[in-house]
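Example record used in the benchmark description.
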Amino acid sequence: MKGAMEDVRENIVVRARGVTRRFGEWVAVERLDLDVRRGEIFGLVGPDGAGKTTTLRVLCGLVEPEAGEIEVAGCDVRRQREQVRDRIGYVAQRAGVYEDLSVEENMRFYADLYGVPAHLREARMMELLRLTRLEAFRRSRAHHLSGGMRQKLALACALVHRPQVLFLDEPTTGIDPISRRDVWALLAELRRAGVTIVFTTAYLDEAERAARIGLLYRGRLLRCASVEALRREFSGRACEVLTPDRTRAQQVLRRQEGVVSVEPFGATLRVIFDPARTSLDGIGHALQAEGLPEVEVRPLLPTLEDVFIALIRQHERIEEEHDRMGH
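Model output (structure tokens):
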């Protein structure tokens, strides 16, 4: 048993326990417990303001936590900053490249920064230029590159010292679909080479590329599991409601027993409900009883977004109940 526990611990490359970080009254990260396994792609997902960027920066050692313990690649993040820096790569939301330097010059600068031996640099740079498909642009200044190409250059710079763990803050925000595809193809190749990747995103289609995902909301990690496990555990149902009076329908449904959430979606309302407490017919009858005309209720397959919204609403109800009880 002890040997098995040691093997599990050895396979954890990012470990956080009880990590908290505040900015004034705002709690950005609250009592975070997290394990990321060696060689996996792990996604931190949540809406704006959930604490994704702060969580990533705390894990990297760029922001000091107020409480808790963090270990990355076998090093204590608070006490062994230099060793951690040598073992990780970090790419911020805005690509951290120097606009007036060429692609090659940016990569050489980061090689200097990380102390990459001179006899290894050219081979590594050529390998990364090939991986990022930037060979033809090696002498172009960064400010001449597209947003997607700058992001790939930032990745190349973060990888020049061959880190064990790569931290990416919303790596494809603001770049075109083709560049997004290229970035994810590169990340898949890195994972196959044994690099552990931790990324943040607000895009749920990107979250599905991760082996596991953690849902962050108001600084709290609500759930951490694979996409398949989250879907299996989801007991709710989804439907769409079509009616000319969408605003009134939304008000009615939010009072309806068993309705978990009601969100506008184009010209319709997307509804998540508990099948143990209501049904498609129940939703339709509730709207008709309020005199809403031309109501149509159609079943939908639940999406990952539905799962996350249900988890968030459940968390909000628990918090409200605690507040009512004076906790």
